[in-house]
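Notebook B, p. 112. Complex prediction, attempt 2.
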Amino acid sequence: KNQVEQSPQSLIILEGKNCTLQCNYTVSPFSNLRWYKQDTGRGPVSLTIMTFSENTKSNGRYTATLDADTKQSSLHITASQLSDSASYICVVSDRGSTLGRLYFGRGTQLTVWP
Amino acid sequence: EADIYQTPRYLVIGTGKKITLECSQTMGHDKMYWYQQDPGMELHLIHYSYGVNSTEKGDLSSESTVSRIRTEHFPLTLESARPSHTSQYLCASLPPGGADTQYFGPGTRLTVL
């Protein structure tokens, strides 16, 4: 069973609109949570990384939140652009692993229409 | 932008062929990883390495093998490709410290006919 669940599976929005993507996880012990953007046919690129004590972190038009108590995270995209069309992947790392063990969600496929 | 490279980017081959997917990074990272990703699915770890002469199998069973003779180079080999090997293969490396972000290569899209 995947320990990182994302919703929605896919989303279509109009350019300029805002959207929020959700991530629920069961990974324990928790180390940090990352949001990656993956363009079609490319490798994932990191957007944000949050540790246990961080509630929110921004990177330009991307704002990630983390509730470590409920094990939920969200990624909010403001004023969407056509270039935001991609898969957004939630990745959780477990604590105490020297491997840097990561648990991947299946991603939310975002499409931004003009 | 991370300096991690994968070649080829796309590969279409026939069943039974031997192939090697190349992955190189110029950042001096000790830890490197290979992931397999099918469309719309999560990444699955198939191999990882802590450093030179260190290789381990990941969570997802794979018929591929890897080697780590040099820090910067982590090739993946399939001795006899089959259609079930059709997938995207992503290479990644991790800076020292463990808590930092893995840097991914652009991936190799493999199609076995």
